[in-house]
Structure formats: structure tokens, C-alpha cells
Amino acid sequence: MLLTWDGKRKPDWSDYNNPRPAMLRETFGGGGEGDCDLRGGLLFEGDNLAVMARLLADGYAGKVQLAYLDPPFGSGANYVRKIRLRGDQVGRAERDLAKFENGSMNQLQYTDQWSESSYLQFMYERLWMVKELLADNGSLYLHLDSNEVHAIKLICDEIFGRECFQRQIIWRIGWISGYKSAARNWIRNHDTILFYCKDPGKMIFNKTYLPYQEGYLRRGSGSSSGKKDRPAAGKGYPLEDTWNCSAADRMDSIQIKSFSKEKTSYPTQKNESLLERIILASSNPGDLVMDVFAGSGTTAAVAQKTGRRWIACDANHIAVQTINRRLQAIIGASGDEIAGANPSFSIWEMGGAGGDEGGGVGGGVGGGGSIVSVDCRRDGADVIIAIMGYSNLELPKLTKTDWRSLIEWVSLDRNYDGRTFNVYLSDIPKDIKQYVSGRYTIPNVPGGAVIALKVIDILGHETLWVK
Predict the structure, then answer these.
(1) 61, 317, 434, 440: which could join 429 in a potential S-S bond, CB 3.0 to 4.6 Å?
(2) What is the pTM of this model?
(3) HSE-up of 114 (CA within 13 Å, CB side)?
(4) Residue 324, helix vs strand vs coil
(5) By 3-state DSSP, what share of the chain in percent is helix, strand and coil, each rounded to 5?
């Protein structure tokens, strides 16, 4: 059965014979030089169709063991993230911020509004590309909800073949309250994950078990057998295709957890526990995992923690910043101890997207009218950097609030080449109540070195100071 719509067409592969170049913008831990090689993780900013074309041109066809996609759901909604100021004056600052943007503290991230035919064509072209990138032992997990899952399953059947469909996984979101429970209908409380493989005879699958609950006894075969109940032996309960549906399998959505330390403020973030289950089941250490609707970066984060290589992509600059910050924090906290993973990654830009650049001896100018004031001086062989102040015309003037409440994080390059920012150190506060330090010592800086400091504020503006 084939699904049709206005304008349906397969990708014209000739369109991808001369893919757009990928420009190396930033490295962390030394990952990535020249072409898009996978010495560390690869993070792309740009249209994922162009990114996948670039990957195919660079020899990644048939190299991906696992693709997880969390695309737009066709929900008709707008998705926003909450803007919060940092530090111990958050309460007062947020009241001031509420006067900004007509009382809103939200920033639009993306709009999920489509005509039916444009949505289906959007997904159709990208799923063909995903298939080309999957290895023969590779799998696809496609995360959707009730809006488009039935149509997309028909598309996946066409592209992968019905014989490659494995399971329709039901992920129960968790407890529901408030307006979501007021519908005069059965209350919707799940997402659907379609599980396909490239070749059923070759796919990687590591069967998962839930541990037996404490005190669980296996029953005997009946009184006539004379057998008694006995302690459970074996691996546990084999995991079913309905997740978070029992007391033994708690995996509520992060969206209903008010105090989760995983939260990044990105609106469609998924749990690390969800991605860990998928990644451990359908890949092995050292395998390549890909997410081209990367959002908050959960797939890349879990891949890094579990010793997989990874490729992530998003067209949203805030999403790429979120992933960058998240992966730097993970690698910086654990380094080489992360299950043998390469503790590095690189950021690549497709086309004209990217941050704002400016520079000068005493200050830097960035997007949204942002200005950073910096004091830079030598102390023998060392260089001491001190940020003296920061302002942005798009943010309110918070006269009683520390300027650091406007800053998400700061990075330094000790020898900037004017093109690629190679992170030497990053100052990433662990908690919303913490500030960046604002003062940094760079040891043993050679004469003639160019130092660059990048400041990222709470709205996502990047300001580059260079000396």
C-alpha cells in the first residue's frame, strides 16, 4: 500500500552530487580537522537534508548503526523555551524580565505548522537519506505521536520494506493532570516509536530485561508436582514494547518532572533513560549513532556516555548551543573515563547560519547589540582575562542584578586562528543559581598568540572578543 500526496517525489540524487560545504566552526578536545572525519563527535548546524548529503559525499553511506529521529510531530503548535536569569537574585531578575517582551519570558524555538503534503514530503526525503546512511546491521527508531504516525508508518514501509518493520513501541508519558486531563475522551498519554531495521537478519539487538522485584518467587508447576515456590533465577522480565507501563519500568517523561537535573530548558527534550534503552539495545560500544533532529542533544549525550560515536544535527542555533554546552559539561566532568569514548567533538556549519562575531582590544560586539568589556594583561608567561561587564540591547537594564546573570557560559581559545574556535577552557555553571567566574588565567601563552573569548548570553547571542 502506497501513500500519495500532492508533490510527492523521491529525492533526486543528482541534487546531492555537489553537496554544500561544511565549515568547521569550533572544536572541543581536539576533535575534527579538514573533512568531516569522526575522530570525535560531529555536531552540525543546518538543514539536515544538506547535512546528510554532505555525509554521503564524505563516505558515510552504510556506516550508521543506529538512527534515532525525533522530528516535528505535525502538532500545529509553537514551541518555546523559558528564559531565566542566573544567580541568587533570580526572583527579582525574573520580575524585571517579565516587563520585557510584553510580559513574556519565553523565546520561540520552532513552529510545527505544516500543510499535510509539505509535512509528508519533508519526512519522505529525509527518511530516504537515513536509509542510505544506515549500515546493513543498522536500525531506525522514529519517535512520533498520534498526529502523523499512521501516515509515516506507510512511508517507512515503502522505503524500508514492510519486512523491516520490527515493533511499534508505546511509551507512556506518565501522570497527567490539569487541562490535559479535562478532555471529554480517553486521555492521551503516550508517544509512539516506530522501530525499523535495514536487514532483519543482520540487525543489532541486545535483548533487555527488567530485574525481578525484591521478594519475587517463581511458582512451582503445581501441587501434584511437589515443587515449591523458589527464588527467581535468570535475567529478569524481558522488556516488552510498552514502556513505562508498570511499577517495574518507571520512565516518566522529563517534561513532567519539575526538578530533573537533566533539564536544559529546550522545549521538546527527551529523557536520557529513554535514549539509553534504545542505544544499548540497538548498538554496541564504538558504533555510530545519528540524530538529525537533535534538539537538546540527549542522543549525543547518551552516546558519549556509553562509548558510542555520534553525529547530531539541528537547524536551530539555540539547539546547537544547548548540545555544545551539554557535551562540554559531560566530557569535562568525565574525560577519558567515559566508557572509552573519544572525549572530543567538532561543530560544523552548513551555509550561512552561525554566531555573531566582533572583536577588539578592549571589548567585543555581538548579536542583538551585545557588548562585553574585558581586561587582558600578562603576568609573566601567563595571561589573565577578566570580564568587566556585559550588556545587550535586547535584554532589560537590570541595575540591581549582577551582569553575570545574563551569561550562560564563557569559552576561551588560547591561540585563535580567525576561523575555527578551538576551546581551551569553558566556564559552564552547573546550576541556574551559579554565575560564571568571569576571571581566567591562561598559562604559558607564547608571544604573538591571539586570544579569543566567546560569551554566550541567555538569549543565545554570541559575542567574540579577540586580542
Answers:
(1) 434
(2) 0.89
(3) 17
(4) helix
(5) 25, 30, 45
Which helix (DSSP H) or strand (DSSP E) does residue 334 occupy?
A: helix 317-334
By C-alpha distance, which of 392, 386, 285 is closest to 339?
Answer: 285
> What cell was used for 156?
517507512
Using DSSP's 3-state secondary structure scheme, residue 246 falls into strand
Cell digits of residue 79: 514551541
Q: Which helix (H) or strand (E) segment is 191 a member of?
A: strand 190-197
Q: Yes or no: say if 349 and 440 are a contact pair by the CB < 8 Å rule.
A: no
Structure confidence at residue 35 as a pLDDT band (50, 70, 90): low
C-alpha cell read off for 461:
547571542
Cell numbers at 115, concatenated? 500543510
Which is more confidently placed, 217 or 84? 84
CA-based nearest residue to 455, from 314, 336, 359: 359
Q: What are phi and psi of 331, to 5 degrees?
A: -70, -40
Q: CA 361: distance to chain centroid?
A: 35
Position 357 scores a pLDDT of: 35
Average pLDDT over residues 325-346: 76
What are the chain's domains?
20-77+112-350 (3.40.50.150), 363-466 (2.60.40)
Q: What residues pair up with 142 in beta bridges, in sequence order? A: 69, 194
Report the alpha-carbon distance of residue 210 to residue 330 in Å, rounded.
Answer: 27
Say which residue, 174 or 170, is predicted with more confidence: 170
What's the CA gap between 136 and 201, in Å, rounded?
Answer: 9
DSSP reduced 3-state for 239: coil
What percentage of the chain has pLDDT greater than the value 70?
A: 83
Cell numbers for 410: 564563557
Which stretch of 208-222, 306-320, 350-364 has the lowest confidence by average pLDDT? Answer: 350-364
Strands 41-45 vs 309-314: parallel, antiparallel or unpaired: parallel
Q: What is the mean pLDDT of residues 167-194?
A: 88
> What is the Cα–Cα distance from 402 to 44, expressed in whole angstroms?
33
Give the Cα separation of 416 and 418 in Å (integer): 6
Assess whether pLDDT exceeds 60 at residue 33: no
Q: What is the mean pLDDT of residues 307-325?
A: 96
> What are the two backbone dihedrals, phi and then psi, of residue 199, each rounded to the nearest 5 degrees?
-145, 110
